[in-house]
Amino acid sequence: MKNFKKAGGRIAFFLPLAFIILFFECVPLVSMIVKSFLEDSGSGFTLNNFIQIFQKPAYLVAIKNTLWITILSTVVGLIIDFFLAMALSRDTGKKKSLYLSLLNLTSNFSGVPLSIAFITLLGTAGVFVLISKQIGFTPLASYNLYSLKGMFIIYVYFQIPMGTLLLLPTFDKVRKEWKEAARLMNARSVRFWLQIGIPVMMPGILGTFNMLFANALATYATPYLLVNNSISLLPVKIVDMFVGDVKQRPGLGSALSIVMLLIVMIEIGLTNLCKRHFERGTKR
Amino acid sequence: MAYIEFKNINKSFGSNHVLKGIDLNVEKGELLTLLGPSGCGKSTLLRCLAGLEEVQEGSIYLDGKDITHTDARLRQIGMVFQQYSLFPNMTVAQNLAFGLKIKKMAKEEMKKEVSAALKMVGLEEKANAYPGQLSGGQQQRVALARAIVTKPKVLLLDEPLSAIDAKLRKNLQIEIRKIQKELNITTIFVTHDQDEAMVMSDRICLLNEGRIEQLGTPVSIYTEPKTKFAAGFIGHYNVMKPEEFDKLIGEKCNRTHAVAIRPETIAISKEKKNLENCYEFKGKVVESLPRGNVLRYTIDVNGIEISADTLFRSFSIFEDQSEVWLSLEKRNCLDVEETAV
Amino acid sequence: MKEHKVLKTIWKVCVAVFLLMPLVVTLIYSFSERWINIIPEGFTLEYYVKTLTNTTFLMGIVRGMVTALIPVLITNISVLLALYVVIVYLQNMEKVVQLFCLIPSTINGIIVATSVLGTYAGSDTVFSNRIFMLVMIYCVFIMPVTYQGIRNSLYAVNTAGILEAAEMLGYRKFHSYVTIVIPTILPGLCNSALMSFAGLFGDFAIIKIIAASQWETAQAYLYRNRSTDAQELSAAVVILLLITLVINYAVHKSQNDKKGVRAE
Predict the structure, then answer these.
(1) How far are the Cα atoms of A86, A169, C101 from residue A89, in angstroms, in the given order?
(2) What strand order describes the sheet that includes B304-311?
(3) Which end of chain A has less Cβ packing within 10 Å, N or C?
């Protein structure tokens, strides 16, 4: 009896977490998966939702657009972040902490405020656009922020602080001795980074890639504010299926969510394969 | 002209003057040890030769050429670091081949060179292992092999054995020395361990606070320390001021320099022996510490504590607090300078 | 080596300029009367006065803070309780707890929010209350960060060892967990909590899905008024950024305090 009471006490400690996880993580997830295989009228098993997604151009374009902007902004962001973190990794003192503060501040600068700031900058009546018109600098004067390519700059913007902050600790893994040993063997610094530095950092780089990818994929506020439905992207489409002004289609929305989930899982699977390849030597 | 020449090398890190006008010559094929406590500048001097630190004043010559401002990449110097210097993402063989590939060596020849170098350090069977799978000692062997496989003009060893446990260290000391002699490669070895320096070196350069304290063969440095610091650092000498020495032996000698006495030159016995050319005096055993095959006594003589070593033989152990007679040959009392001049 | 240094500095400056550009332009814009030529014209505080007297916006900030704070508290307490049991009694549950706490990092906020909405929206229970839903979704959203922060701190201070030592001195384990372990890891906890708070305060997607009309936070307010006066919007953005800056400073400070404690 005493033991039972004790065990009961222990389980009570688990209850709050279990409640949240069960009712707001597991149940909705399962219900979403089930729903994706149901007609919206609620009757019977169907693959219709998935068939629609892979047949109707509207959804295919959404997937294509999403993949394009996600992958490209992740890669471009990662390259910028890599060199920035490299430049910062050897710095010390005040200058570095000032730069880190800037990164920390801008890493929280996202969503609606960020998009508004970019509208002020590059929107139809944006400051840079107006100035460019005055001085006749055409590439900027005709900048169209309200397009996939136009939004790209915002995606890259929010990938910079996040990725750099994540990459910085990875540079500490590259030991000074390796650089010096390579240098004494007449290796130039490009050779060092390609053959030793980057392979050693690869697990960290891939982890950062995952975070940036997930971050870009789930970006909602920016496209919703800038292009809404004129250019379709997965997150906007999914939300529309549940809370849109037109007819709500939770079945299709669930199926789209699952597609998005699959994209994440495939991406994580691929980076894990890559990671394993690079971890060969470094793990005991 | 010597093979390597350091001329008036000066180096500071901020306000910290690390090297203060070092002049040093190293002959071709010799193994010179830079010995000194941490912070004496020995590693910095080595890194200046490697080109990993810039020299602020003075010049370095290698094989007749001024290399003071040559890029580290082009100096043809091999170096073994304290630890963790192997590239973790490459196998042992790939680590060795790294430098050869840059030399654009043919594949076949490269293979031969790599396996020859691995054979030399006794690790042929580990060619395809990753550094993470090797013990600390094995890693340092590979690092040595990697440093010599490119046939550098000079081999630099920066405390390569300090992270390895004592027993293995002894073996590696002998092995490194053997390989160095076999290749007849000019080598500079950095250590803070005087025993290691004794075992390995042709010559020892004792450094203290950025200056050369003494330079010479291991035997000469051990038996004839020139300064207080050298005496204290090398042989656990008892170093005392002239007036303390007078107090010890109980007579006035009017010495002008500090006196250094090696512990093993002091003989301990129960009775006075009345030997010639010896000082003899009475003391009281404070404590005794076994140190390997030697028993080190701390003895109080007229209020001055000195150490005396005897071989560890069971029939001649003196109890703590017992009264003993000490004898000391006069010629074993060495004059030492306060500091290097 | 020298050229590398120059290149690095150039790179740092370029990125900093890019990062600062929207901030600086928004700041100048919010203080100027008009900016249609190359140089902004006139300095005014008018838009700040307008924004700071706008009760809807201010209420939005308060709402945003409330729905950011409550989930942070709930999640931290739940994870602390659960990990106590895991560390003291059920070590083999560790992997399970970890799995479930980290799942939300794979399924992003939009999927969590839409699936919860789809499941409970018409259910006529307390679960269908939009604000309750929002808080719970936020809890799930910040679960991975919270879990990892707490777990790492608990292992870093060797919780099991401390609790056993305290038990030998006659204290009950839970008592020493609350009075010794939690205060020790509090600086680290505050750090991850503030980061979560900042993340939730800046959320727009989830609020839009769940409760934009019932519970208008500052972000939702900005969205609704996206086509009103641009200077007023800029002033609002600057104010929100200042709040973020304050939170950031607090994070920074809690980190430094932690270092200070270690140094002692």
Answers:
(1) 5, 8, 32
(2) B266-269, B323-329, B278-291, B294-301, B304-311
(3) N
The torsion angle over the Cα atoms of residues B80, B86, B92 and B98, rounded to 10 degrees, is: -80
Note the pLDDT tens digit of each residue in B126-181.
999 999 999 999 999 999 999 999 999 999 999 999 888 888 899 999 999 999 99
Residue-wise pLDDT for C77-116, tens only, equals 999 999 998 988 888 888 999 999 999 988 889 999 999 9
| ipTM of this complex | 0.90
**Quick check: is B31 in a domain?**
yes
**Smallest Cα–Cα separation from A40: which of A254, A258, A257?**
A254
Q: Is A124 strand, coil or helix?
A: coil
What SS3 class is residue B38? Answer: coil
Is B98 close to A199, i.e. CB distance below 8 A?
A: no
Q: How far apart are CA B189 and CA B200, in angstroms?
A: 9
State the Cα–Cα distance between residues C138 and C198, nearest whole angstrom.
Answer: 12
Asked if B85 lies within 8 A of A185 by C-beta distance, the reply is no
DSSP string, B268-305: EESS----TTEEEEEEEEEEEEEETTEEEEEEEETTEE
C233 contacts on A by Cβ (under 8 Å): 116, 120
B266 shares its domain with B139:
no
- pTM value > 0.80: yes
Model confidence pLDDT, tens digit, residues A14-48: 899 999 999 999 999 999 999 899 887 767 788 88
Instruction: List, edge to edge, every strand of the sheet that includes B4-13.
Output: B16-26, B4-13, B57-62, B65-66
CATH code at B305? 2.40.50.100
CA distance A206 to chain B (A): 16
Q: Return the partners of chain B (3 or more C-beta pairs < 8 Å).
A: A
On whether both B81 and B174 belong to a single domain, the answer is yes
Q: Domains of chain A by range and CATH?
A: 37-279 (1.10.3720.10)
Q: Which 3 state secondary structure label does DSSP give A234?
A: helix
* B188 and B302 fall within a common domain: no
Q: Which residues pair with B304 in a beta bridge?
A: B301
| Contact between chains at B89 and A182 (C-beta distance less than 8 A) | no
User: For residue B341, is it within any domain?
Assistant: no
Which chains lie within 8 Å of chain A at 3 or more CB pairs, if any?
A: B, C
The candidate with the shortest Cα–Cα distance to B230, out of B338, B305, B331, is B338
Nearest to A115 by CA among C164, C71, C38, C26: C26
The answer to whether position B195 is within a domain reads: yes
Please indicate, yes or no, whether residues B202 and B280 belong to a single structural domain of this protein. no
Residues B198 and B165 in one domain: yes
Is the Cβ pair C100, A218 closer than 8 Å? no
